[in-house]
Automatic annotation (TrEMBL):
Domain spans labelled Transketolase-like pyrimidine-binding: 4-179
Name of this chain's protein: Alpha-ketoacid dehydrogenase subunit beta
A Pfam family this chain is assigned to: Transket_pyr
Native organism: Thauera mechernichensis
SMART domains per UniProt: Transket_pyr
Length: 326
């Protein structure tokens, strides 16, 4: 069992599925000869050939459109979009075709497609390289949206996404690619989709987050523990469909909830979770739900990113606010 980082876990999962299933093909810009802009596909074209790891033109619409046709005809394509900010030209295909194909054909055709893309800030990249589009994608019926927060979950969830019979948006937090390493066994064991993972048990409040923000959220839980506060930490992982049962069960125990995400605040996924708690968990709440989010602006450049991204201090302050409420 090797200690690997998140981008290496993605590579490991892709290699496993290419070897296991001849229907799996990869396509995207610079993914073959160059191994991808973040090296997520390094070595795969050399191992499996240019017919299965396909370098494409710089055309996101063509990449996703071609992948949908491949999926409809029985292949299992994994398409890479270099940055999530480049995804928008392909939304027509994703929303109007990939997400609707099973319904449109009354089950005669399926679309076992995975679209991988880096997302989020924290690497001081220019505009269009730091997007957090999960709420927009989750709003689309027929699309499953997944975002891992560790190497082990990246490996297991990507296996599950490739094996799923319907389209999956697999959002990879860029900041997490090389942030830390953990032991990951290349055993082919997929993790379940559509469920949250409870990373830490607690009794005083529930911290809910996903993707790169789990790093700050868990650090905040450590800081709260030093103050005698027991925080439960939930990794949403699959953002659509949302496992509301796990969140509701946690808040029923703790009575308080803080939701953390780096996407802009307005109409973010945190609002949907807060609405779910109001609809189905209101009588469990001892205090208003708090949200710690990015701002309703474009991600700023360079060092200003640190002012935009939720910090440990902001999360702890929100936790204290909900703990002080009667």
């Amino acid at each position: 069992m090797a200690e690997i980082n998140l981008v290496e876990a993605v590579n490991l999962a892709l290699a496993h599925e290419l070897a296991r299933d001849e229907a799996v093909v990869l396509l995207g810009e610079d993914i073959g000869a160059n191994g991808g802009v973040f090296r997520a596909t390094v070595g795969l074209q050399q191992r499996f050939g240019a017919g299965r790891v396909i370098d494409t033109p710089l055309a996101e619409t063509a990449i996703v459109g071609t992948a949908i046709g491949m999926a409809a005809m029985g292949l299992r394509p994994v398409a890479e979009i270099q940055f999530s900010g480049f995804l928008y030209p392909a939304l027509d295909h994703l929303i109007n075709h990939a997400a609707r194909l099973r319904n449109r054909t009354r089950g005669r055709l399926a679309c076992p497609l995975v679209v991988r893309t880096p997302c989020g800030g924290g690497i001081h990249a220019p505009e269009h390289h730091s997007e957090s589009p999960e709420a927009m994608l989750a709003h689309t019926p027929g699309l499953r949206v997944v975002m891992p927060s560790s190497p082990a979950r990246a490996y297991g969830l990507l296996l599950a996404a490739i094996r799923d019979p319907d389209p999956v948006m697999f959002l990879e937090p860029t900041r997490m690619y090389r942030l830390f390493r953990q032991e990951v066994a290349d055993d082919g064991e997929a993790l379940p989709l559509d469920v949250c993972f409870t990373l830490r048990s607690g009794s005083d409040l529930t911290l809910v987050s996903w993707g790169a923000m789990l790093h700050e959220t868990q650090a905040a839980a450590d800081a709260l523990a030093a103050e005698g506060v027991s925080a439960e930490v939930i990794d949403v992982a699959t953002l659509k469909p949302l496992d509301t049962a796990t969140i509701l069960e946690s808040v029923a125990r703790t009575g308080r909830c803080v939701i953390v995400h780096e996407a802009a605040r307005t109409a973010g996924l945190g609002a949907e979770i807060a609405a779910c708690l109001a609809d189905e968990g209101l009588y469990s709440l001892l205090a208003p739900v708090q949200r710690v989010t990015g701002y309703d602006t474009v991600m700023p450049l360079s060092r200003l990113e640190n002012q935009y991204l939720p910090s440990v201090e902001r999360i702890v302050a929100a936790a204290r606010k909900t703990l002080e409420a009667s």
